[in-house]
Amino acid sequence: MVLAPQLRQSLEMLQLPMMELRALVQQELEQNPTIEETPTRMEHIEVDSGTAPEEKHELDFKDEYEVLARLDSEWRDYFLQDIQHRPYTEESDEKRQFMLDSIQQRVSLQEHLIEQLHLTGLSDEDARLGELIIGSLNDEGYLTTPIEELAQAANLDAARLHDTLAIVQDFNPIGVAARDLRECLLLQLERLGHQHELATRIVEHHFDKLGARRYNDMANALNVPIEAIHAATALIASLNPKPGLAFSDETTAVVLPEVIVRKVEGKYLVFLNDDQLPHVRISHHYRTLMDNPETQDEVKDYIRERIRSGAFLIRSIEQRQQTIFRIATEIVAKQTDFLDQGVSMLKPMTMAEIATIVGVHETTVSRTVSGKYMQTPRGMFDMKYFFTPGIRTTDGTTLSNKTVRDIIDQMVNKEDSQHPLSDQEIMESLTRQGIPVARRTIAKYRLMLRIPPSHLRRSR
Length: 460
Prior knowledge:
The chain contains 23 helices and 9 strands. It has helices at about 5-15, 20-30, 60-70, 75-80, 90-100, 110-120, 125-135, 145-155, 160-170, 180-190, 200-205, 205-210, 215-220, 225-235, 285-290, 295-335, 335-340, 350-360, 360-370, 400-415, 425-430, 440-450, 455; strands at about 35-40, 45, 260-265, 265-270, 280, 375, 380, 390, 400. The strands form 3 sheets. The chain has a 5-stranded mixed β-sheet with strand order 2-4-3-6-7, with helices on one face. The protein has a two-stranded antiparallel sheet with strand order 1-5. The protein has a two-stranded antiparallel sheet with strand order 8-9.
């Protein structure tokens, strides 16, 4: 079965995140002269009101003209302005060029380090060695190629290259040009003045125990109180394990919530966050052209086609927003306990269940929540976060998988470090609480929580 182009476009709009949809609408605004942008606003509707935004019935072409007749003529006044009223001048061109020249370009990690290298006063030959090292760093700021291999490939003295590496490692950002994570952390501790302190000894001699969170083992080995170990590991955690990423050319993904949930007077309100989405409408100017008997038939045909395209865009956006609102409303109504008390009260919920309530197909729910985010009093969540299968307890209630994982995480945090809980013991404890979970499921949840197995959590 082949989808009609308009249906395919409507489904694509439903699936697009806010920023991508904004780009699509901006493109349509540039290409379709019959639509214009109107001021934005934020809409909200109470969760328990049981009503959704009023649905817009599809208009035939005659009805569209009736709508156009009621629109104001602001766009017409703007459209009829002659471009000669804003003529080209040398001054305006200079202003434009000044603006372009003022845009700051991101400095790469290599450029940042080369600038520091030129200030060291090294000989030309040593500077070339430094450039070789800097050019070999990866995006995270690490030197992953062994010095000996670099020296052999460039027919250089490895000892001299080592000396140059020590100079580059003294540059900013601190920790740059390290050959592994341990060296990166040690370089940062040294620059911060902690080279003789407990944190340095942990990284230097007990790095494996640090990764396995074997705090008691480190305390016994270093003969210090466990509180000192916790303080030292907190300092280590504050260091930057990837110093080069601050200069990465990769753009950071911008996440904007499609829905904002707020608690007002004891009730949760669902807001459609469409401030970043252009609001468009059909321009009144083109109805005037259609009514003008002097307008050529070819022009009228073109305007008619463009108006229909613009009207379909507007209806598709409205339908998208309505669908997001209705699904978000059901999510919030279902997960009120989660919003009040946290993840332990997250209820199991499937897309098929919400689809039945809303009256759409399950795939429509999947497209709607894909890449969409909801801002709640509990924080920002991917809308897919709220859809999780459940585990039926012995008393007939159902817990979500995320709730069970939260219970396991709490059990591990409270365990005796000298006798950590095995997967079997966790399974038996959950069973006594009326939560039957297989041992292999416990192991899977533990891996998802990044909790090491019991023998790596044991303090000796």
